């Protein structure tokens, strides 16, 4: 059973930064895509960013503020979040597609508030 474990969430003031990490229990070389989703209270889960070996995509609302990256040696995908806004408050979920299956982490809470 492949597991994805997120970390790095927390409370931050508007304009602040956080780095989310998602570490897999096995090699991520064949995971494609990997990415981050988020779900705010009362809203549907939305795609934030995805990364493959050849492309990176972001939802418009985070372009220029968030950066996704992956380290295959550390079996980890990261989401660097800058210039955070209150509307970025959500539970953030790590996602991976592997051998035709969707893998999800347990989620990490990000709260942007003064």
Taking pLDDT < 50 over at least 5 consecutive residues as the criterion, the unreliable ranges are: none
Q: In percent, how much strand structure appears in the residues?
A: over 45%
Mean pLDDT: 95
Structural class computed from helices and strand pairing: mainly beta
Output the helix-strand order.
EEEEEEEEEEE
Number of strands: 11
Report the total helices. 0
Shape: globular
The gyration radius over C-alpha positions equals 13 Å
Helix content: under 10%
- Major sheet description: 7 strands, mixed
> What separation lies between the terminal Cα atoms?
40 Å
Verbal overview:
This protein has 114 residues and is mostly beta strands. It has no helices and eleven strands. It has strands at residues 4-7, 10-12, 18-24, 34-39, 46-51, 56-58, 66-71, 76-81, 90-98, 101-104, 108-112. The strands form two sheets. Strands 2, 4, 5, 6, 9, 10 and 11 form a seven-stranded mixed beta sheet that branches. It has a four-stranded antiparallel beta sheet with strand order 1-3-8-7, with no helix packed on it. The N and C termini lie far apart (40 Å). The mean pLDDT is 95.
